[in-house]
Fold this protein.
Amino acid sequence: MPVIELSYSRLQKLIGKVSKKQISDSLPFLGLDIESEDKDLVRIEYSPNRPDYSTDYGVALGLQGLLGIKTGLVKLAIKKSKNYGITVKPTVSKIRPFVTGIIAKNGKIDDKTIKQLMTMQEDLHFGIGRKRKKSSIGIHDLDKISFPLIYTTVSRNHKFIPLNSEKELSISEIITDTETGKDYGPLLGQSSQVPIIIDTNKKTVSFPPIINAAITTVTTKTKNLFVEVTGINKDDAEDMLSVVATILQSAGFNLEHIQISGAKNSSPKLQEKKMTVDSSLINQTLGLNLNTSKIISSLKKSRLNALSKGKNIICTIPAYRFDIFGPMDLVEEVALGYGIQNFEPTISPSQTLGQINPISLQLKSLNQTMIGLGFLEALNSSLSSKRVLYDMTNRDSKNIISVLDSKSQEHTILRDSILPGLIENLSRNIHESYPQKMFETGGIFNLDNPISEKTNLSAISAHKDANFTEIKSVLQTVLKIGFGIEIQTKTAVNSSFEDGHCANIIFNGNIIGIIGEINSKIIDNYKIRVPVVGFEISLSDSILKFI
Amino acid sequence: MSQVFHDIEKKIITSLKENPIQTPETLEKSTQLLPDQIRRGIEWLKLKNLAIVDESKSSTISLGKNGLDSFEKGLPERRLLNLVKNGPRKLSDLQKELGFIFGPAMGLCRKNNWIETSSDKIILKITPSILPGEKTIQQIGKNKLSKEQIDKIDLTELLKRPDFIVEDIIKSKKISLTTSAKSIDVSNTSGAIDVEAEVPEIFVARTHPLKDTIDEIREIFVTLGFSEILGNMTQSSFWNFDALFTPQDHPARELQDTFFLDGISAKKIGTVEQIRKVSDSHKKNWRYQWDINEARKMVLRTHTTCVTIKHLAENKPDEARIFSLGRVFRNEKVSYKHLVEFNQIEGIVVGKDANLRNLMGIQREFYKRIGITKIKFWPTFFPYTEPSLQTMVYNEKLGKWIELFGMGIFRPEVTKPLGITKPVLAWGGGIERIAMLKYDLDDVREFYNNNLGWLRSNTKCQ
């Protein structure tokens, strides 16, 4: 989940009369986890469904509501204007079809504001923009641009001075030589034409979704902003714009419309939407008995507007709250506005009788029997490695099931056997006193359209007198005393075991496992200095079969 | 007061009176005791200040497998030099004759400029009269020598080579009696045994501590009226993500967070109706082109919720209390805080009157039963529940609130497409975190290290 750094003193200025403690006490009840605090600075984690919390302006709006300082919907006041327009050329339709935008005027921008806007932009790109694939933003100094603009395509030879560069670069150079070019260039595929926003004097403004032109860079001297959002879906692009517009208005800017036309594009509406929720759904879901006025005041604390019509609550939802899909989301808004700390947990009597799964019960009996036989229970990961599963134990690695891009080398392959892990465990305990006897029950995996999962039991015994007879006695006893099952052992050859000291375990005529003295090469590989014996059986094919 | 002695002690004292300075081995012979009994007896007497133990160390040197080989046939480089002594030889022939020692021999001869190669031939330049290590190999031969007898520089050369030299460190102990012990008359003591003496440690076979916690949690939920269901650890993305309203381009569905099984897809992922309705819900609410191939990709489940939702979709109960418990997987860097594979419990309540306060009540009851009473709830976000909460529990030792189970009510976007009509309360969380609090562990990896020292000594009832 994304994390941002906020300053208490700046929040206090934005919210109004509020103490630092009130802020830190309230943040969690907005769904914002405090990661760490350092004097005036606080780092919070917010949920990706609330991109409006990616700046302190958005957090301040939320806190004002929860603390009852300012409640109700944040209305966007967007001045109608004919001064700003973008014409869209049909050539963009195959690459990045949609553009939208807004003008924000007469704001004060200091370093901290720039920093907040930058984080917001990055978080929006990463989250709802899906790493700029769905939609991306450019924020520009309005006074460096001459309207109207054209959103069109150019060839990869097109040149301009991009952000953070001193000289002109071609599109191809930007994609191969700059950091953002390398990161996001692949979004444009192999297309020879790339999207571009050009102003009326043919100056390049932006090369979406990669980089802005250097000339429109926002600095502390900037007063007026032009914001553009481009994307592959019109609604997604407008969603992103609605967050930016709301934040900029909260930061003190006056918003003005941009007229957008051509190639299926149109001017953004950033409209509020209405949604109705039945008050009985709210009370039933939350386990409360709130009257409509309490429901309405709670919704207002969540910065929505609401009015009642009989049992129904009609809500007005601002454009930036596109995380609200349906009535159940409004139920949550009521819960947050009401305050989660005000909910008294209740326990309702159970209408059902509890039951442990029969398989869990069987496994528990098996464990008890193994412990009675003097074996200690071990636990290993089911995601293991080629080294442990195959290389160290001379096993055939033909049908391995591996995971993609594991961050840990020790966890790359799903185990098809438990025994190799137990032998590896012995190697980590050579300094501990012997005898060492361990067992493990757990899942194993095999390729089988697509994968079959079975439960196995494996046990090992390591000490100077360990031998086949000892481990066969254990196997025989655990199955007979535990489950009344009789097995036979038939000579077998297996690379993990010593020749002539290894047998298949047979139950009802089927091979259900293997038993024997572990091959001395494996013991040497692990530098274990005593003989090791062990077995592994499929429980799914024996005792668990009859449940 | 007359001292009480164990039989072992009596025998050792008697023997030492006859023969005042001995090793454990000579004591073994004279007392007819087992090595372990001698070891313990000496330890006891030492503790009582009756015996003095002088420990010293010495090394013996003998030849390893390769060392013996060189003793018989000469050092690899000598053997190579001998072969080219009478004129240039073909490289491939030498390789055949010398086998695996050819490589190391060539390396050494070339480095020291004893030979040169010209096209595929090897030509002798100088024959050194004696090579480093040769003298020592001859000196040791098939014997064991004390380290002091051997030329240090020459030995260092050989120690660098694999399996040439075997060094045995011999610890020797010399045991004698203290002055006060010399006057003890062991024959004079009664038949009493020393009941105050230390006894050897024995180890209990037992269940794994993490399993104890898992069993405890399982039993708590059963007593709260819940039934356990089981499910596979490998799941299609459909049940792990799509059915839980997690869009296909959601960051959680990337390789860096979730383990995808290399090249493995499920053919059958659900009924035609389930697939149609789930994909419709995605298309309508998330506005993208839903791709069935994405849903077929097999993953290691990231939560046990996939097991519960599948159960609900198949059974559509109007009233149920169900839980599942098992391993879940995240593609994370392993650290003291994170494992790639851990256990999760996940429970649900289905019922027409199920509500958020009930959900909080079940949590409170559960925590109470595992001994946690200071809890609070914070709002949070999960893609498949609305409203969503998390429990914070206060840890006295750490002096801070820590996050435990997440919970919520399944979104209509999850339940409706699968034909589930009643509200579903759901919660879940990692078990290792609870077990770490219980066993006072700082490093979660300890649960899977199978370190016998820890497993054997850990207190069972905590």
Observations:
- The domain at 358-546 of chain A is CATH 3.30.930.10 (BirA Bifunctional Protein; domain 2).
